[in-house]
Amino acid sequence: MTCINRRDLGLLVLRVGTGAVLAAHGSQKLAGWFGGGGIEGTTAAMEAMGFHPPKHSALAAGIGEAGGGALLALGLATPAAGAAAAGTMAGAVAVHAPAGFFAMGGGYEYPAFLGFTAAAIGLTGAGRYSLDHATCHVLDRPWVVALAFAGSALAAAAVVGRRAKGQASAQGGPVDEDD
User: What are the residue ranges in the chain where pLDDT is below 70?
Assistant: First the structure.
């Protein structure tokens, strides 16, 4: 008789909850579900927030959230899913950072929490109750973890850096041409 493993059950609950929230946010951006603006509204919002090109940024954010969230919930390709969601949330943190930490004042508390949670799940693994486990962890190898998190960190740094450079240029501030 197999005992239910509390650690794996806890990972399942954390994965499904976090993944569902991320997938819902991404579906707002991509499809306009749950009161979202869809790709057109998200593109306009991305442009207003200083992300260029705005449509590519809207698609990347929507796919990072919806795709990363769905994969986290399923426990499939968990390192890549966690890294994609965490990288996407890094962009959201950059947008909310000027308002401070707490979400009540428009700060970055919420996207930071989602990003750290997604990253932790991606690093920890999906646990026994997952598609990664059912597929013998084919998509959850140490090299996948390293590659996914390195790629996500580089992409997030490039996107956030490009946005910051564009905002500095628009405000007449100094722009480092070497970046």
Answer: 1, 173-179
- Side-chain-side CA neighbours of 22 within 13 Å: the count stands at 38
Tens-digit pLDDT profile for residues 52-73? 999 999 999 999 999 999 999 9
Cβ neighbours around 147 below 10 Å, total: 14
pLDDT at 173: 63
And the tokens for 74?
A: 């399923």
Rounded CA gap, 149 and 83, in Å? 5
Among 74, 73, 62, 68, smallest CA distance to 28 is for 62
Report the predicted TM-score, pTM, of the whole model to 2 decimal places.
0.90
